[in-house]
Amino acid sequence: MSKHKFSIVLALCFLVLLFVIRADWGWYILLFLGFIGITSWGSFDIRLNYFLKAYSNNPNENDKRIALTFDDGPHEMTDKVLDLLLQYNAKGTFFCIGTQIEKHPDILQRIVSEGHTVGNHTYSHSKSFGFFSTNEVEQEITQTNTLLENKIQKKSLLFRPPFGVTNPNVAKAIAKTGHSVIGWNIRSLDTVIEDESQILERIKKRIQSGGIILLHDTSLKTVNVLEQLLLFLQSENYQMITVDELLNISAYEN
Ligand SMILES: [Zn+2]
């Protein structure tokens, strides 16, 4: 049973209890607001595993191994990211958007040929993703999987929802497509924070073995942060590997 279903059962039990003890109407409102609050929190924090199981890190990792993940490409900036990864002998995981794959198929090829992993990050990366029906979510995923299959001849098994949003519809769609959902436990906020050193410090503070770092290969700012981050990880003797290797799961269908 998912945490969401458990919450529904719990809320219904409280509802019956309030009815039995003839509670004041204010308690019903409190119960309602509490349920809405917990559900919203569960939607926006993928680490809670509220609606579905998502991998946010590998808590059993004993070696100094960490996964760098890059969302929203392939993009003009991806080449600079790939140059840095090559320079520091690091491997990364790229969660690609379908419309971006159509714009930069050559960059996608480079990502794969240099030994990095590619995952599915929907076709349109719509801001309304959280309101999509199960069918719409499924279509977003299969459309990008078909694109990936055509371009790199691999059937992707890794999925990261846009904005890390999960809900019952995303959970149902994932159950159909069979993807592993990949979250993160180290959020760089590289699309929110302007100051590069602030982003770097934020990541450095949270570095730990088995961690999954969320970055975006869409700005020069992130490229600059990445260079400093790779220097730091190298000096700390970290090995930068793909998420599938870190989590010991398959990135592609055989
Ligand atoms: Zn994204």
UniProtKB/TrEMBL annotation:
- What transmembrane ranges does the database entry give? none
Q: Domain (NodB homology): give its ranges.
A: 64-241
Q: Which InterPro entries match?
A: Glyco_hydro/deAcase_b/a-brl, NODB_dom, Polysacc_deacetylase_ArnD
Matching SUPFAM superfamilies: Glycoside hydrolase/deacetylase
Give the protein's recorded name: Polysaccharide deacetylase family protein
Q: Which organism is it from?
A: Flavobacterium hankyongi
